[in-house]
Amino acid sequence: MKKKLVRQIASLMVCSPLVLTGFACKKQTATTSDTAQTYPHLPEATNVFAALTQTNYDQAVSELIKVKGSIATEEQQNEYASLSRAVKDTLLDASATDPKAAEALQAYRLLTTGR
Fold it and tell me: Distance (Å, rounded) from C-alpha 7 to C-alpha 43?
């Protein structure tokens, strides 16, 4: 499970800047089945990754808020923490070249820190 998460995050980190600059990755971010396997207790995580794949960063943060609101168990909390880190890392990478990602990163920080 950890290997898949690391692979997923690495894919996001590599593909996001390449997609933004016009280059294509052989394999885009995680597929729906990969996301479902990585976050089995958070079915809404697929919506977060779908938005990130489409570089719709505001939507990704919005979907992350929805996921946070649906957490009811410790397993979901652990998976949410991992998902949240993946979103933050993707936003950090993309914010260097994409102002929309920088805005979404500010919204993410407001969500996580309240500032």
Answer: 19
DSSP 29: S
Contact 16, 93 (CB under 8 A): yes
Please tell me the pTM assigned to this model: 0.69
**What's the CA gap between 94 and 72, in Å, rounded?**
31
30: nearest Cα among 55, 57, 50, 59: 50
Which pLDDT tens digit goes with each residue over 33-91?
676 678 888 989 999 999 999 999 999 999 999 999 999 999 999 999 999 999 999 99
Token digits for 26?
Answer: 């052989």
